[in-house]
Amino acid sequence: MRVAATRLGSLVQRRGFASTPRRLDNYAFIGLGQMGYQMARNLQSKLKPTDKVSIFDVNTSAMEGLSAEMKAASSGAAVELAASAHDASKGADTVVTCLPEPQHVRGVYESILTDSLPKKDRIFIDCSTIDPTTSRQVAKSVSEAGQGTFVDAPMSGGVVGATAGTLTFMLGADSSVVPRVEPTLFLMGRKVLHCGDQGAGLSAKLANNYLLALNNIATAEAMNLGIRCGLDPKTLANVLNVSTGKCWPSEINNPVKGVIETAPASRDYRGGFGISLMRKDLRLALVAAESAQAKTELGTLAFNMYDKAAQREDCKDRDFSVVYRYLGGKEE
Ligand code: NAD
Q1: What distance in Å separates the CA atoms of residue 217 and residue 241, rounded to the nearest whole number?
Q2: Does residue 316 carry a pLDDT above 60?
């Protein structure tokens, strides 16, 4: 039974587990990094012992570590270590990929879609954050090879959400395949937002992260402005958060130490959403904007800022709210 389905124009949001569509038995999971490792673990643990998950990553220690963890749990689907992405996909009905950048997605699918891959009506679910143009090209190559359907399902929720199985997926797929895709996504996350045809999930994800990138810088600048004018940081944040400036960076991820105790700023910007990931997402948003001929004047300025901050010793590898430090914001 579906729980709490809400319709917002063409956007369909569903929570809970979809049970009506048939469960596909053989899965492949390719890309076992920070996100993929946890997602594959959740997927395998929630499948039946009669199901099988074949895993692959170029990093063999990630593969072996995950396989050992899955086998130690002694429940869920059978696990198989594959020798390549192609090998993992051979017997799979559903293939999930979670890779870093567009070139990795292109390369992995080229290696899978060779003539030696047995013909099958597979579902390929790509959870990587890449640009919609590359994603559409890969979808076309899957369909031209007669190997089934490729959908984009980029996610939000970070490593915490991947570990807890509470991710939100932004799905780009023809409506007719949504019932075949959702059951797999609900094993790794809590919400599936169907955004439109293939590629639409990525367009939504990149538009959201574009806005987040700008809101984050604007919040850092506004906080720095008010503090340097003599305001107490918490007083200023309290004003913003009941006024029209309120946004996620001001309210939840405030960039000034001590304003929100649980925010990365209060632990030297450790953890959270890495500045290099934000730089990458913003670059992809600018690529998408260029191909859609959407004007993004602030985006280029913001990208240069993340680019420079990500290289500075006291900012790199930190949460993206560290732009406050990059701006010379007062920290004590
Ligand atoms: P990651 O770099 O930790 O993991 C990527 C994995 O892909 C690595 O284990 C790598 O060895 C593997 N890989 C690379 N090339 C491969 C190939 N040819 N064949 C097989 N495996 C290959 O990245 P991540 O943090 O897990 O993110 C994955 C995707 O999810 C990215 O597109 C990222 O932007 C997106 N994302 C990440 C987060 C986050 O918080 N980390 C949140 C939302 C979305």
Answers
A1: 16
A2: yes
From the CB of 30, is ligand 1 less than 6 Å away? yes
Domains of the chain: 5-196 (3.40.50.720), 204-326 (1.10.1040.10)
Question: Average per-residue pLDDT in the chain?
Answer: 93
Mutate which of 38, 57, 60 for ligand 1? The one with the most ligand atoms within 8 Å of its CB, which is 57
Measured distance CA(282)–CA(102) in Å, rounded: 14
- Pocket flag, ligand 1, residue 38 (CB < 6 Å): no
* 90 CB-contact burial (10 Å; exposed 0-12 / middle 13-18 / buried 19+): middle
Catalytic residues: 205
Does the beta carbon of 98 sit less than 6 angstroms from any atom of ligand 1? yes
Lowest mean pLDDT among 8-12, 174-178, 292-296: 8-12
Locate the ligand 1 atom nearest the alpha carbon of residue 56 and give its number.
20
Quickly tell me which residue has 């900012």 as its tokens: 315
pTM over 0.85: yes
What is the 3-state composition of the chain as percent helix, strand, coil, each rounded to the nearest 5? 50, 15, 35
**Exposed (0-12), middle (13-18) or buried (19+): which is 245, by Cβ within 10 Å?**
middle
